[in-house]
Write a structure and sequence with these properties.
The protein is mainly beta and 103 residues long. Helix content is 4%, strand content 72%. The chain has one domain (3-97).
Length: 103
Amino acid sequence: MPLSEKRVSLQLQGGVGGARTGFTVSQTSCVGASICTSQTVPVANNSHFQVHVGAGVSFFVTEHVFIRPQFDLHYVPGLTDVFGSNIVPEGTVWLGYSFGSRN
């Protein structure tokens, strides 16, 4: 946290990891009204390396309760094969509780 004041703090995140995508097809068929079978078949599975960066600003409502809007960006090489882009943006709003003192 490069900025940490009594009521606001800036949080920066970064890391590397993996992303796994997969598609399945589910099918149910019945003979009459009482004999039914369900089948789930995996169609495609892929594993990808990914890089993540994120930034959020925590606004403390009380000394411990905060609201943090956050923006994250994931770079996943090879994701264009299925989704058309290697970059995956994400936006979230956190409602959280922070333990400890905020001196």
